[in-house]
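Human:
Focus on the backbone:
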Amino acid sequence: MKKKREFVVVLLFLVFVYFFLASFFNSSSASSSSKSRSRGNGDGFNNIQEKKTFDTHGDGLFFSSKNNNKDNIKDEENLRALEEIFLEEESQSSVSADPLDLQFLGLQSSLGGASSSCKFQFEIASWRETRLFFALHPECRHLDKCESELPSQTTLSKQVFDSGGGGGSSVDSRDEKNEMIIKHSTYVKRFDEDLRYAHMATIAKMKDERMILLYQAAPAAKKDVGGSDGGGGDDGNGGGDGGDATYYEYKLATEGLQDQHIEYTQSKDLEGKRWTPPVKLPIYNDAAVWSPVVHIDNNQVYVFYSESTGCKKAIPCKPPQCPKGEVCEVDSHAEMCHHTPKSLWVPGGDIKYIKSIGDPAENKWTKAMTILSQDEGGGIPKVIANSLIVMKKTGHWVLPYWREQQNAIEDGTCTRKPEFKGSSGPDCRWNKRSRCMTGAQPFSGVLVSENRGKTWQPRGQITQSNTSLIEGSIAELNDGRIIQVFRTRVGCLYKSYSKDEGKSWTEPEPMPVPNPNSKVFLMRLEPNGELLLAFNNMKNQYRSRRGATKCRACRTHLHVAISRDGDGNEWETIARLEDEIGYEAPRIHYPYMAQKDASSVLVAYTRFYLGKRKGLTSLDQGVKVAEIDLKSIV
């Protein structure tokens, strides 16, 4: 311990000497040179004119210092922040080897300034980089509320299976307690030669106690000699090579294809272990349909979904040149090209629903009814993802939704492909507001029906300046309030409350629950009102800005947590569904839950691989259902 303290003192002294000497030589050179070189806000992290990097005592501590003409140097603030980190490490009897590279992560200045909005790449920052950010920006400490992993008070151990290269040996840490809680885990639909994409599952209990499950699906993206290319979306996959006129090579899953549709199946037993063959829902759509949400009213099945309307994914024909680690805005006059493949629709559009006529097994449904169109509210796609709730006091239906704008161009207006070198004409340019890029504000809210689905009204405009809030999930609390939790980009979930059925909402605030920018599902347990949350229990996606990755773009550690405090403030993990990590980038995510009885919950979720090797060949991909026994928990 004494040696470690001496090491810290020496390290701080050397850092101070470095800054002092750098300041001295900079000021000397400024007086003798027509090109002044100064250090820039004292933080050493933005507007680089001259970059210096040093490694003190080989501990992996890196700084980027720059020169500009400002005199308000704040080296002392940086030193105090470093001292705070080192003292914290010393108290934990460990000195981290993580490097500090805040310029890459977007820390633009010291206290205040360009970083006052708390924008920072938390999802790929090391522990020390995150600590230094909060030391320099105490006004952003609210973002430090969530843990890197939500702890478990039931001492559940992880089951980790390495899907990496080579032989892919696995490590299985068996946990008898976890195995008792998870009664079974069953595939409802596996990927096969005809279907390479199944996602966004929704599940509910019907009146006869059996379960119904739906998901969005698409066939494999194929390519022949003259065919279109394949590619993946945010949650889909992409890759593979073409074939000839008689041979097709199946590609990885792709979302947003023209023939993306919804399939449904029903359980053959009460436990959800056996399921009927999936059937395509007879929706007469003109574009891709997205994210079904099922609701049972008496014995009638309602299926809510969104349908793309006229807008295809687009990318700049010449991507903007951004400094490393920064996100650049697309120029308003940039020339746009269709995404590859050019047939990909943007998520969302009009929100609609259909309902069953008679037994759902007969596959007879009403015509679709639009409850919120893309053109309403300034013209922006509307999307849903999580369950509708029925308010106990009023019986009103409340469905969470959000508005999301992606880069898009109107279908049929631009024929240029990215590889085309000539001029594409004015129809591809963003030189004016188009139907697909109206500039309407994205936000989250709810749709409310006071007459059991006949008419609907949107309520609420929930936003947060430092992150998007999407894929909201809601539950009614015992006092009649609604809590809504959101997927974010800052490493933890956010929540907001409404006491008037969605007309107004509290300021969104972070939760002590990590989130790797992935969908979660929140539900109320009956009869006592505990809250159950299915989520990816991880703050980062195992990504590295320096190339080395353990599990690039993973979404794993799919766990279930419970809150008993009545507000959703305190949580503990009660079950681990899957914890696979590896170089094949497993995506075990997008949970959806339904309560089977007072002591049992079913969790539906998706698993697939982004990596080509397993993504193209593994049978361990598709839609799964797991049953959780709550007898020892509730």
